[in-house]
């Protein structure tokens, strides 16, 4: 036989769900607001992941290109590569031959016949180069010092390229991300507070509607938890429903975005990666949404019931 | 069973609602408490159900000393005391059966136990066959008997009936009183308040008269003349 406590818990959950069904129209505002809040939360999480992915992506493309004179022989080149690899903060050094450089150039300008024609008319004017990937793109001084040594500088046909424009872009994105992060946190806090106030009010009305029943329950010796429990279960159901709604909205938006925008991006936001991240981390995201929904719901009803039930009398 | 020792209850600003009340009720007694509105009868009941705390004095009910009662013990105390009110306090959106079952659900009884117990109690109060009616479909007397069924379904040692006949015509009032007598015969201590001098004088029970917050008379077979 089930224990008294198990029976009571079962009734609390059942009463909460019944009460949810009864108050569903009253609860619509609360659920909608919580749905919006959770949607914003979800977007913030996905956007945050996407921005840091974008930064990583761009960072990994940062390189230092050293253009070699045509007179530099294989031995000198290999020697230079060996020396470079000993320099601090170097991830990799790749050699790009004249032929390879031409191929890349042709591929990059495939749709520009004039440029292609200009190249093929003469012998290959493109220099061979070394593509250096730094470990930390913000610390290029050591590499720079090494390359500016007269003996090394003598081997170079053109000034070293430091991907300066890319670094500026990274700084810009980092600042933007930081701003979005802060705006996101503030936005989430504001929306969480609004949702909680609305839920709070909904529960207050539910308590008011059922005040006779609650008085009788108290007089018949219901424990405070038996009286409060159903209200808390009810708001937990709001949270779960809101989480499901927000997941459906987001899944829908990502589906539409990736089918119509096709791997493109909205400004800094890489839609393809976002929707990939959403799909890959679906279980985590679902748990996050439901947990957040339950916490927001339960917290507001715990406060509301404490404030309005006066159950300890 | 019930012991009040020099109990005073003072609400803010007004004078004391009850002043140094001492009362002793034996188990299985049937005690009628009479007095005008505002004399302090309701306050006395609220003290017994612990809806109010006394300003001073000692209350012991069924061996439980109210001074030592913790908040978490209050629900258990209330399950041991059955209460019936003048306005019934039934849930109009629940059937007769559900109203009575409600008290057992709160106490954590299983559905099986509830199904088994409720019909028996409805039989005692004479409402067999009315299980699926809603309170508003019943007469006042029937409604009050539903409330009594709800109060006694957990077999309390004490039943407190606060003006249970106040809203009823004489015939229905007597139906309710007879049910209370029956319950008393089964061994439950009954505390009844009423304004109805006919009932008091016919019952020939102990009568405690309260006036202006004090017990002015306590007779083994009391008489009452409503003024």
A few lines on this structure:
With 313 residues, chain A is mainly alpha-helical. Chain A has helices spanning 4-22, 24-61, 74-86, 98-108, 113-121, 141-147, 150-153, 164-209, 211-219, 224-261, 271-280, 282-308; strands at 64-68, 90-96, 128-134, 265-266, 269-270. Chain B has a six-stranded mixed beta sheet with strand order 6-7-8-3-9-10, sandwiched between helices. Chain B has a four-stranded antiparallel beta sheet with strand order 2-1-4-5, with helices on one face.
Element-by-element helix/strand order of chain A: HHEHEHHEHHHHHEEHH
The helical percent of chain B reads 25-40%
Overall 3D geometry of chain B?
A: globular
Instruction: State the share of residues found in helices of chain A, binned by percent.
Output: over 70%
> How many E strands of chain A?
5
Q: Strand sequence of the main sheet of chain B, in spatial order? A: 6-7-8-3-9-10
Tally of alpha and pi helices of chain A: 12
Regions with little confidence, pLDDT below 50 for 5+ residues of chain A: none
The CATH homologous superfamily of the domain at 2-89 and 158-219 in chain B is named: P-loop containing nucleotide triphosphate hydrolases
Kindly describe this structure:
- Chain A has 313 residues and is mainly α.
- Chain A has helices at residues 4-22, 24-61, 74-86, 98-108, 113-121, 141-147, 150-153, 164-209, 211-219, 224-261, 271-280, 282-308, and strands at 64-68, 90-96, 128-134, 265-266, 269-270.
- Chain A has two domains: 4-58 and 169-308, no CATH class; 63-162, Alpha-Beta Plaits (2-Layer Sandwich), CATH 3.30.70.3040.
- Helices cover 74% and strands 7% of the residues of chain A.
- In chain A, strands 1-3-2 form a three-stranded antiparallel sheet. In chain A, strands 4-5 form a two-stranded antiparallel sheet.
- The longest helix of chain A is centred in the middle third of the chain and has 46 residues, at 164-209.
- Chain B has a six-stranded mixed sheet with strand order 6-7-8-3-9-10, sandwiched between helices. Chain B has a four-stranded antiparallel sheet with strand order 2-1-4-5, with helices on one face.
- The longest helix of chain B has 16 residues, at 170-185.
- Chain B has 227 residues and is α/β, with parallel strands linked by helices.
- Helix content of chain B is 33%, strand content 26%.
- Chain B has a domain at 2-89 and 158-219: P-loop containing nucleotide triphosphate hydrolases (Rossmann fold, 3-Layer(aba) Sandwich).
- Chain A binds chain B through residues 1-2, 4-5, 7-8, 11, 212-213, 215-224, 226, 312-313, and chain B through 49, 51, 71-72, 74-80, 83, 89, 91, 102-103, 105-110, 150.
